Amino acid sequence: MGTTHARKIAPGEVSADDAERSLRRIASYRATDADGSLVEIGSEVGPEDTLVLPRPVFDMLVGILEAVAAGRGIQIMPFSAELTTQQAAEVLNVSRPYLIGLLEAGEIEYRLVGRHRRVRFDKLMEYKAKDDAQRRVVADELSSFGQELGGD
């Protein structure tokens, strides 16, 4: 299992004006498209050079352009990417020692590469989704409890 790297576009790396121009052209295309499973994009050079994209890829590219046009950076991370413990901690917005505690407690699957732990991005996202769901349940319970005690 090899390490797969993320692709990044830093804020300001691509002109927001260029991204806006692309979004305007895409908006006019979307207005006439029948939401097919494939998107065919004609070249500005000639009609014989058509680019065909699967709809989910096209939609993702639109999201990237929207972020770039708004001046935000973007990062695409393959699900199979392996992260260092520092990278994984940053994704979860926790400290590295806290993340290592989660790994050693078996909360998040990982593997050792020599002495170093590697966390697959998809396993990290599974943990995050489960943790977010548990937090919502607790928040709902606290809200209900507050209402029972005479809150609004």
Strand content is 15-25%
Mean pLDDT: 85
Adjacency order of strands in the biggest sheet: 5-7-6
State the share of residues found in helices, binned by percent.
40-55%
Provide an overview of this structure.
With 152 residues, this protein is of the alpha+beta class. It folds into two domains: 7-76, no CATH class; 82-148. The chain is built from five helices and seven strands. It has helices at 16-32, 55-69, 85-92, 96-104, 121-148; strands spanning 7-9, 38-41, 51-54, 74-76, 82-83, 111-113, 116-120. The strands form three sheets. Strands 5-7-6 form a three-stranded antiparallel β-sheet. A two-stranded antiparallel sheet has the order 1-4. A two-stranded antiparallel ribbon has the order 2-3. A hairpin with a 2-residue loop joins strand 6 and strand 7 (116-120). Helix 1 runs antiparallel to helix 2 and helix 3 crosses helix 4. It is extended and about 60 Å long. The termini are far apart. The mean pLDDT is 85.
Give a short overview.
The protein is α+β, with helices and mostly antiparallel strands and 152 residues long. Helix content is 51%, strand content 16%.
Layout of secondary structure:
Blueprint: E1 7-9, H1 16-32, E2 38-41, E3 51-54, H2 55-69, E4 74-76, E5 82-83, H3 85-92, H4 96-104, E6 111-113, E7 116-120, H5 121-148
Antiparallel strand pairs: 1-4, 2-3, 5-7, 6-7
Main attributes?
152 residues; alpha+beta; three-stranded antiparallel β-sheet; 5 helices; 7 strands; 51% helix; extended
